[in-house]
Amino acid sequence: MPEMDPLIDPAIQREILVSRIGGNPTQAAAGIGAFFDEVYRYCIRLMTATASVPPGPLAFALSERGLEVDPVFDQHSKEFVPNARLDIDPVTSVPVGPVLLTTRNLRLAYATTCRETDALGVATRLRDLGLGSRPTAIFVPSQRMLTFYSGGVDQKPSLSANTDALAALNLEDLDSVLTFFHENYTRYPTGLGTCWDNATHRIVERNAERNIRNHLFIFLSWVVYRSKYIVREYDRPNGRVDIFIFGIAMGEPDQERVLELKVLRSRSSGWTVSGGKARSYSDASNVRYVEKGLRQAKRYLESTMAIEGFLLCFDARLNDEEISVTDYAHQLGICYRRYYMQSSVKEEATAMTASSSLQH
Amino acid sequence: MTVEIEPDSGSFNVEVRARGPASAGRTDLRARAWVLLALDASARNGITPMSKLRFHRFIYLTNALSPVYDVQAADERIVKYQRGQFYPDLQWHLDRLMAAGLVRIANIRHFEDEDGPWMEADYRLGRPAIHAIERLVALDDMRALSTFLQEVAKAFANHQEDVLDDLILADLTYADARRARGSVINFSQPRDNLSVQAANSFMTITRDPRMISASDRLYLYVDYMDRLHHRPLRRA
């Protein structure tokens, strides 16, 4: 009996999955998020093509139903000129602008000029054209800043994203991405993460672990990798993985990674100088907690067949001292990382001076 | 009515067996809404005005892939026609929408070639259509349909302009060599809808099928057609 012709060529199928899925939209085409997502992707491509960086801001205003039935385009059609496609064509030159009226997928983009080419002038031009209430994204290349106005420039911005973060990061190196997260979110009380109840007394919030996990999830899925293939509380038969990174998010199918998070502390929430009901945690109990985390990460690594498992310990203990679990982590095959959370910038400077004196 | 149930068939299969293939008749208002919302989805994604040829091929793609989004197709049968996909009844609806001022027509061309006499034209939405579409999408069913059509339109529009017209000829259900020119392709049964089978098969090559969403399957399958289109077709 002759062999059945396969429905789909597995080689092509695999190649498409590997090469294209990372480029699939992360937002539903019918939502406003799809427009902002496309603008974000375009700006990243524009900044990567360094020779093409535009001198001033670019404004992307949404033509919701396409330009043919857009009253603003109809009224000012002579002032607009067509751009090359911004959705798929390689970025070889600065787009004509600075005001762009585009479809949601950026396939059609018509541009018009404005007299004052700074951000204020661009916003004024948008209002003059009657685009003040349209969903708009304004990109300022010199600051690598992209600002979204869901209700148009007449309203306050709804979200800002600094694309500089991506330009500085090697996205294939998860360790450096995690270090970047710590530097910006958890290292200092003034960082982007909310973790401390009282930083001076080194008391973290009751839900610090959950908060840091959520911060890290948003940082990885929305800021760095812009991928829905990063999951928090990933449900497995033997528990829930804090954060699970599917390989495709980092461009490597089937190369999954497990992140387990722990917050180490010396004092629990409610601790006061005069004592009180709240308890303190001994060094020994923190060591046990880290070891437990390592075993958890190991279980998740095995149950998900991931290629790497990390235990990330955000350290809010009184002193920045190593925990001797390196051999145990090595034995389990887990990457153990400890990130010390400073009470203030000053404290760190003092610690560094002390350390330097000791070395001399 | 007796419903034959295969051991592995789910409730969807039972329903399909019971009702027979969907067919867009001239009195079918849902089919007319489908035409209007498909043009709206195309306009939102920058691929209008749309030629008559591209319109029918795009409508076919939306019909073939509708099970991926659990949307009931407007028409589950099509004749394998010499000029590619074409729906006489949906053309009838398109013409009525034009007469009602909701759709605009331009560049009408009458010609005759090796396939016989034909008329071509470009279609786009008229401004009065906006109000009609807003009324339509106030209905849950129509909103779900609009969401699906916008997703297919975006996946389709994401390809180079010069391949868009012929891309859908590479669709696996339509290009299946077992179906001769002039025959009726009925893809109402899941086993006959090769397009959906191929789209869903992307789920089977990943470790966790949940990570390939319905929208991913659409984009990946349209990419697959594009790849087939660029190589000699084995099935055509």
Number-wise, the strands of chain A total 14
Quick one: how many beta strands of chain B?
5
Number of helices of chain A: 10
Residues in helices of chain B, as a percent range: 40-55%
> How far is the first residue's CA from the last residue's CA of chain B?
38 Å
* Structural class category of chain A: alpha+beta
The biggest sheet of chain A, with number of strands, parallel, antiparallel or mixed sense and barrel status, is:
7 strands, mixed
Class from helix and strand fractions of chain B: alpha+beta
By DSSP (H or I, 4+ residues per run), the number of helices of chain B equals: 10
User: Biggest interface, which chains?
Assistant: A-B, 39 and 47 residues
Q: Which quaternary structure do these chains form?
A: heterodimer
What is the approximate shape of chain B?
globular
Helix amount of chain A: 25-40%
Shape of chain A: globular
How would you characterize this protein structure?
- The complex is a heterodimer of chains A (360) and B (236).
- Chain A is an alpha+beta fold.
- Chain A is globular and about 75 Å long.
- Chain A is built from 10 helices and 14 strands.
- The model of chain A is unreliable at 353-360 (pLDDT under 50).
- The N and C termini of chain A lie far apart (83 Å).
- Chain A has 2 domains: 10-163, YojJ-like (1; 169-359, no CATH class.
- In chain A, the strands form 3 sheets. Chain A has a 7-stranded mixed β-sheet with strand order 2-4-3-1-5-6-7.
- Chain B is of the alpha+beta class.
- Chain B has one domain (11-227).
- Chain B contains 10 helices and 5 strands; from the N terminus they run H-H-E-H-E-H-E-E-H-H-H-H-E-H-H.
- Chain B has helices at residues 11-19, 29-44, 52-65, 88-99, 128-136, 140-157, 161-167, 172-175, 194-201, 214-229; strands at 50-51, 77-79, 103-113, 116-125, 184-186.
- A 3-stranded antiparallel β-sheet of chain B has the order 1-4-3.
- In chain B, helix 2 (29-44) packs across helix 4.
- Classes of the chains: A alpha+beta (360), B alpha+beta (236).
- The A-B interface holds A 5, 7-8, 10, 12-17, 20-21, 24-25, 28-30, 34, 64-69, 87-88, 103-105, 107-108, 228-229, 246, 248, 253-254, 256, 305 and B 40, 43-49, 124-127, 129-130, 146-147, 150-151, 153-154, 157-160, 172, 194, 197-198, 201-202, 205-208, 211-213, 215-216, 219-220, 223-224, 227-228, 234-235.
